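Standup notes, protein team

Yesterday: finished cleaning the Parvularcula bermudensis set.
Today: Glutamate 5-kinase structure.
Blockers: none.

Input for Glutamate 5-kinase:
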Amino acid sequence: MTVTAPDLIESAKLAVVKVGSALITDTDHFTMGGLAGDIKERPWHAVLVSSGAVAVGNERVPTLDPKQTEDRHALSAIGQATLITMWQSAFDAYNKVAAQVLLTPDVTDDRSRYLNARAALRALFDNGVIPIVNENDAVTTRDFRYGDNDRLAAKTAGLIGADLLIILSDVDGLYTSNPSKDPDAKHVSYVPYGEASRYFEAAEDTKSGGVGTGGMRSKLAAARIAIDWGVTTIIASGRRPHPLRDLVTGEARCTIFEAGDKISARRRWLSGVHERSGSMDIDAGALKALKAEASLLACGVVQVAEPFLKGDVIDIRHDNQVVGFGLAACDSASIGSAEGSTIVLRRDDLILTEHDHDRNDQ
């Protein structure tokens, strides 16, 4: 039986709600107070991922150019202070305390810092505080950032083990084509997990007319991350006085993306790591063993392509293709002299890019 938005929202125990810059600056249709009230009404723990720092900062200091890297960093720093003040004012009406949490990939890539961030977030919502998460754009670089706050919201959902991700946008979900260009575009209310890939693939193809790409592409990318981690995802319009309340009452429509099977917290962290620190090639027998849920032994390593240390996240290759990645159980320098039965990668500490994804389709 297909689940509904009211069922999902009412049953959620831990949720991430994401608000984009387009809503933050659209004060004619969106109010922070309305969403704050919606979050307060729900019997859940919630983390709010809020964009808008650069836009808000630019309103305060219009002489800075957000297209210039240094100016954009400065605008983010200016806007963050204003943005968190605005959110706190909205939650003050409901006697809720807000807290600012700024994340960067180097935090979520490092295992100990990842765990520290998770513990801090849990401490906040366990004490009734609403964490307001954003990327720390004042210090990020083009090559080392989440890319957009839709993906950050998905990563945050994985970080805290949420059971629901709600992405509020200026559109009410996914359509068969871009509704602003195609009057025959049809709204898609529910996407089963096994059918999600065709929408994602269409969105990634810039020449495809199959999916509207006006801001939807990054949301679909975020949905893909979340549902592969077992987090049901809703894309809905935030251009309403009470967007979550209207979803619960059925007054607003949305698109629901069915989640795959839950994966362990450790594997969620592994699959979210941006950078790899080394790589090695394995033989066909080792790959077959990994697919059968065995660990990788030294006897299955053909060669170390890039050196690594114990604890590094490394790529696993076969026939010149990356087939997975995982947490090294030993230094690469020790593999050549190690006994064949020495564990190089434990099965619980690695992800096969095809096999582990396919298992969620079953």
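Follow-up from PR in the comments: The longest strand covers residues 343-352.
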